[in-house]
Design goal:
The structure holds 2 protein chains of 2 kinds. Chain A is mostly beta strands. Chain A has no helices and 11 strands. In chain B, 0% of the residues lie in helices and 57% in strands. The chains are: A mainly beta, B mainly beta.
């Protein structure tokens, strides 16, 4: 399967600061990247979808000014949590989707655990 | 509306076989995915079915019936490390994954 990397794997920050999370597809071109959030013992929650070179599409209830997404290339997307607060503490997972041999495939990064103190 | 149903939790014994069912209703269909997620980790890809029938991959097999909107994941020779959540997801006409809530599989010795 394809490899998607995510950095950092965990981060602790103070309330009010911003945190940037990078997601890279290492061996395929990701035309679309997804950002998910998962709270303990809950399902994945899609936050936003981004296509390379376009503005991200945010799910209802997700503040686009707070969660800034940039999909600058076919291999890199970033999520910036601005002015983080303790309630933003969660497991953030990116997922990259690309087409190989005519079939869409979607792979996940290892996730970033964010703790806001 | 779009909907994915799978059992919340299942329990099985080490060495046995377990089948996790998933039914789906999505706007269009471009394939059915199964992922495994261990606690505290991101999901990992297990299988993809777009045609009817059974796909076998080692101890894991996945089945799809498009006419019934039904899939199952079959795990054989269960090992303790198979204890995880198993996520079923259907890809709709916009190539978006619609996720089930996941089935927590508990393996007992």
């Amino acid at each position: 399967g394809a490899v998607v990397s995510q950095h950092p794997s965990w981060v602790i920050c103070k309330s009010g600061t911003s945190v940037k999370i990078e997601c890279r597809s290492l061996d395929f071109q990701a035309t679309t990247m997804f950002w998910y959030r998962q709270f303990p013992k809950q399902s994945l929650m899609l936050m936003a979808t981004s296509n390379e070179g376009s503005k991200a599409t945010y799910e209802q209830g997700v503040e686009k000014d707070k969660f800034l997404i940039n999909h600058a290339s076919l291999t890199l997307s970033t999520l910036t949590v601005t002015s983080a607060h303790p309630e933003d503490s969660s497991f953030y997972i990116c997922s990259a989707r690309g087409r190989r041999e005519g079939i869409y495939e979607q792979y996940f990064g290892p996730g970033t655990r964010l703790t806001v103190t | 509306g779009q909907n994915i149903d799978q059992p919340t939790e299942m329990t099985a014994t080490e060495g046995a076989i377990v089948q996790i069912n998933c039914t789906y209703q999505t706007s269009g269909f471009n394939g059915l995915f199964w992922y495994q997620q261990h606690a505290g980790e991101a999901p990992t890809f297990l299988s993809y079915n777009v045609l009817d029938g059974l796909e076998e991959k080692g101890r894991f097999s996945s089945f799809l019936s498009r006419s019934k909107g039904y899939s199952y994941l079959l795990l054989k020779e269960l090992q303790m490390k198979d204890s995880a959540s198993y996520l079923c997801a259907s890809m709709d006409s916009n190539y978006q994954l619609i996720w089930g809530a996941g089935t927590k599989l508990i393996i007992k010795p």
